[in-house]
Amino acid sequence: DDLTEVWTHDVPGSAMFGNLTTNPVVVDGRVHVGALDGSTHVVDLADGAEVWSVSRDISVFGPSGAAVGWGLVYGISDTATVAAHDAETGEIAWERDLEVASGNQVDMAPALVGGCVLVSTQALAAGSRGTLFALDHRDGEIVWQVETVPDDFWGNEEVNHGGGAWYPPAVDPDTGQSWWGTSNPWPSPGAPGFPAGSSRPGDNEDTNSALAVDAAGTVTWRHQVFPHDIWDRDMVLTILTEDGEGEPVLVHTGKGGRVLGYDP
């Protein structure tokens, strides 16, 4: 009944969908935020005063965000470039460009597990594939990568693209396992001359799916919720939790309006 505003901190800048579409990360009395224009901001939790910020002028779809660990703050510095900043000063420790094809973007907040920074690209142009990555937290070297679209693009490489992840995976800190929810295939619902996704026949694996990936980057199981989706029904959210008996369960949901529970 007596909720009051303690402080505000303005984050300047803008992108296609505003600038902040993320949860803040609060660690050791500091609030860490990653913005859609590539900026990273750290403010004091007590009074909202700026500790440091790194401003940029790019534009990604998002959601974006920050992750904090090993003395570093992880975010993006370009549309498909992951950056690590020194947690005390904001200085760049390393950068890794993941634009393996034109049209790739990193549109998610990173997740941290097993000494790795987990991110995904979104494939926003024909001929690009959404890819899951694990990067070494120390230098950004690629530890493993998992393509969510096959080499043959389910058919027409000049038209098709998709896959990848918009949101951080669920992770198991004891094993390094991660569970990802993946995006839909494109074009959706189709392209000129290719109605109802006919440029991409078949199920369009591994889109609209849950993927379990072990610490070595091997997909240990997969489940596709909407094969050959033409209605943009991303199934991109995963949570690792427990059932009423204390047994682990992976909860998976998204824009498709379904909630699924899996034995992880």
SSE string, helix = H, strand = E? Answer: EEEEEEEEEEEEEEEEEEEEEE
Termini separation comes to: 41 Å
Shape: globular
- As an assembly, this protein is single chain
Low-confidence stretches: none
What is the structural class? mainly beta
Q: How are the SSEs placed, and which strands pair?
A:
Blueprint: E1 25-27, E2 30-34, E3 40-44, E4 50-54, E5 67-69, E6 72-78, E7 81-86, E8 92-97, E9 104-106, E10 111-113, E11 116-123, E12 129-136, E13 142-147, E14 161-163, E15 170-171, E16 178-181, E17 185-186, E18 209-213, E19 219-224, E20 237-242, E21 248-253, E22 259-262
Parallel strand pairs: 12-14
Antiparallel strand pairs: 1-2, 2-3, 3-4, 5-6, 6-7, 7-8, 9-11, 10-11, 11-12, 12-13, 14-17, 15-16, 16-18, 18-19, 20-21, 21-22
Can you walk me through this structure?
The protein has no helices and 22 strands. It is globular. The protein starts with 24 loop residues before the first strand and ends with a strand. The strands form five sheets. Strands 9, 10, 11, 12, 13, 14 and 17 form a seven-stranded mixed sheet that branches. Strands 1-2-3-4 form a four-stranded antiparallel sheet, with no helix packed on it. The chain has a four-stranded antiparallel sheet with strand order 5-6-7-8, with no helix packed on it. The model has no long low-confidence stretch (mean pLDDT 96). The chain is mainly β and 264 residues long.
